């Protein structure tokens, strides 16, 4: 995971300050083990999912969706270019199938976080989101954009933590339907909303948002530059973009069959068209208009 904070200056260029997580410094990206905590869903949330409150996929569509999703990936004859060309369909099928499992077993925030000794999964997730909001410098009443917001767990937490208004951008109808219901239950539906759209073509005017963030979401983009350029466009000059990003470090060897196998397993397990090198992400940020400093 690449943890990054980007600031757009009032001029035509933008300042980017970057810090790598300790995990990235000490581990090859292909040797990171993720451990999920026990189920943290409330009984109410579990019952909601069982009754299809907020989203469902018809039983008759499940096996077909699984087969079509698998065909995009290496183990089933797919390739990177096909995944990139059809990323909308691939990612939508992934989240149509996985969202309820994620929520039941993981909670409303579909991302990882460092765990301190004695800290629960829920506590680590909240801290991770609060830290991001603090790095963004979000102030009460500001307009914030969550790029690739899932069902809105981080959106609701950051909105309540900073007393801001957060818009969640998502191209998956299943997740938006569920997210709207969770916003209503949390009492933030008057200040927070969802917009169904592709983050490669955002339906917002230039300089719309006071802050933008993406939590393990822009990794689904087929083109990092195009995605970052859109974020730059909708962010007000002088404001910040923060992201937790999936990346490969220079330890990755494309000629190593075992490295390629693990990379492919992560891609099929997370609905990713590709996992870019950290250097490629930084290059894309610069091309999008950001100035990068480490």
TrEMBL record:
<keyword id="KW-0808">Transferase</keyword>
<dbReference type="InterPro" id="IPR013216">
    <property type="entry name" value="Methyltransf_11"/>
</dbReference>
<dbReference type="GO" id="GO:0016126">
    <property type="term" value="P:sterol biosynthetic process"/>
</dbReference>
<keyword id="KW-0753">Steroid metabolism</keyword>
<dbReference type="InterPro" id="IPR050447">
    <property type="entry name" value="Erg6_SMT_methyltransf"/>
</dbReference>
<keyword id="KW-1207">Sterol metabolism</keyword>
<dbReference type="GO" id="GO:0032259">
    <property type="term" value="P:methylation"/>
</dbReference>
<dbReference type="InterPro" id="IPR030384">
    <property type="entry name" value="MeTrfase_SMT"/>
</dbReference>
<keyword id="KW-0949">S-adenosyl-L-methionine</keyword>
<dbReference type="InterPro" id="IPR029063">
    <property type="entry name" value="SAM-dependent_MTases_sf"/>
</dbReference>
<keyword id="KW-0443">Lipid metabolism</keyword>
<comment type="similarity">
    <text>Belongs to the class I-like SAM-binding methyltransferase superfamily. Erg6/SMT family.</text>
</comment>
<keyword id="KW-0444">Lipid biosynthesis</keyword>
<dbReference type="Pfam" id="PF08241">
    <property type="entry name" value="Methyltransf_11"/>
</dbReference>
<feature type="domain" description="SAM-dependent methyltransferase Erg6/SMT-type">
    <location>
        <begin position="94"/>
        <end position="294"/>
    </location>
</feature>
<protein>
    <recommendedName>
        <fullName>sterol 24-C-methyltransferase</fullName>
        <ecNumber>2.1.1.41</ecNumber>
    </recommendedName>
</protein>
<comment type="pathway">
    <text>Steroid biosynthesis; sterol biosynthesis.</text>
</comment>
<dbReference type="GO" id="GO:0003838">
    <property type="term" value="F:sterol 24-C-methyltransferase activity"/>
</dbReference>
<keyword id="KW-0756">Sterol biosynthesis</keyword>
<keyword id="KW-0752">Steroid biosynthesis</keyword>
<keyword id="KW-0489">Methyltransferase</keyword>
């Amino acid at each position: 995971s690449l943890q990054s904070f980007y600031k757009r200056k009032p001029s035509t260029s933008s300042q980017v300050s970057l810090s790598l997580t300790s995990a990235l410094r000490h581990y090859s990206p292909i040797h990171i083990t993720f451990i999920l905590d026990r189920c943290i869903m409330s009984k109410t949330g579990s019952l909601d999912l069982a009754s299809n409150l907020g989203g469902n996929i018809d039983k008759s569509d499940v096996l077909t969706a699984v087969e079509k999703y698998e065909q995009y990936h290496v183990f089933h004859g797919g390739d990177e270019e096909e995944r990139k060309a059809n990323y909308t369909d691939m990612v939508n099928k992934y989240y149509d199938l996985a969202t309820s499992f994620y929520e039941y077993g993981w909670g409303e925030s579909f991302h990882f976080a460092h765990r301190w000794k004695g800290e629960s999964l829920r506590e680590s997730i909240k801290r991770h989101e609060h830290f991001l909001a603090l790095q963004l410098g979000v102030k009460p009443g500001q307009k914030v954009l969550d790029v690739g917001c899932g069902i809105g767990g981080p959106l609701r937490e950051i909105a309540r933590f900073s007393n801001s208004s957060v818009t969640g951008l998502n191209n998956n109808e299943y997740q938006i339907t569920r997210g709207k219901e969770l916003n209503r239950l949390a009492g933030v539906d008057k200040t927070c909303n969802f917009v169904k759209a592709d983050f490669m073509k955002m339906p917002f005017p230039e300089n719309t948002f006071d802050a933008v963030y993406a939590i393990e979401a822009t990794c689904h983009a087929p083109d990092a530059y195009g995605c970052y350029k859109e974020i730059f466009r909708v962010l007000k000059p002088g404001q910040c973009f923060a992201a937790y990003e999936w990346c490969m470090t220079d330890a990755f060897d494309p000629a190593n069959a075992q490295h390629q196998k693990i990379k492919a397993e992560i891609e099929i397990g997370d609905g990713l068209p590709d996992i870019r090198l950290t250097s490629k992400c930084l290059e894309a940020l610069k091309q999008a208009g950001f100035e990068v400093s480490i």
